[in-house]
């Protein structure tokens, strides 16, 4: 099994086992890659979870903000957000993921401006 699959499998088990009342940061969960201890940052909306596996140099709150924006955008752009919609519309999902990652939307805090920019982007597709 590849390292990528091991990280993915381990991350799913760790996040799924967590209580919803605890924080969205998991550190020291016993998994490392290439000698670096990994931390998980995650969030849920509906039945969709977004989990990022990072080393400790990543800014936890910045990653969590970006995850929240990504989930908000996905929820807005996919009516009835669910994992199957992301699978069936994988190209749209990848485009929205790329747009939120490369356009620095996480620097913007006004959700109306974020949605306006995403709507313009979706119309261009």
UniProtKB/TrEMBL annotation:
Recorded hits in InterPro entries, A to Z, give: AP_complex_ssu, AP_mu_sigma_su, Longin-like_dom_sf
Residue ranges of every copy of the AP complex mu/sigma subunit domain listed in the record: 3-121
* Alphabetical list of PANTHER family matching this protein: ADAPTOR COMPLEXES SMALL SUBUNIT FAMILY (PTHR11753)
Q: Where in the cell is it found?
A: Endomembrane system
Question: What Gene3D superfamilies does the record point to?
Answer: 3.30.450.60
Can you tell me which residues the record assigns to a coiled coil?
none
Superkingdom field: Eukaryota
Matching Pfam families = Clat_adaptor_s
Which GO biological process entries does UniProt record here? protein transport
Task: Give the record's keywords alphabetically.
Answer: Membrane, Protein transport, Transport
- What GO CC annotations are associated with the protein? endomembrane system
Q: Which organism is it from?
A: Oncorhynchus mykiss (Rainbow trout)
Q: How does it sit in the membrane?
A: Peripheral membrane protein
* Record's protein name: AP complex mu/sigma subunit domain-containing protein
Family, according to the entry, reads as follows:
Belongs to the adaptor complexes small subunit family.
This protein's record includes keyword Magnesium:
no
């Amino acid at each position: 099994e590849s390292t990528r699959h091991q990280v993915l499998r381990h991350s799913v088990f760790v996040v799924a086992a967590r209580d919803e009342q605890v924080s969205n940061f998991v550190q020291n969960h016993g998994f490392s890659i290439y000698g670096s201890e990994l931390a998980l940052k995650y969030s849920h909306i509906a039945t969709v979870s977004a989990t990022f596996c990072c080393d400790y140099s990543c800014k936890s709150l910045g990653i969590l903000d970006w995850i929240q924006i990504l989930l908000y955008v996905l929820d807005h752009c996919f009516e009835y957000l669910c994992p199957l919609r992301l699978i069936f519309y994988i190209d749209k999902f990848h485009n929205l993921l790329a747009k939120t990652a490369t356009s620095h939307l996480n620097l913007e805090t006004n959700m109306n401006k974020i949605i306006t920019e995403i709507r313009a982007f979706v119309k261009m597709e």
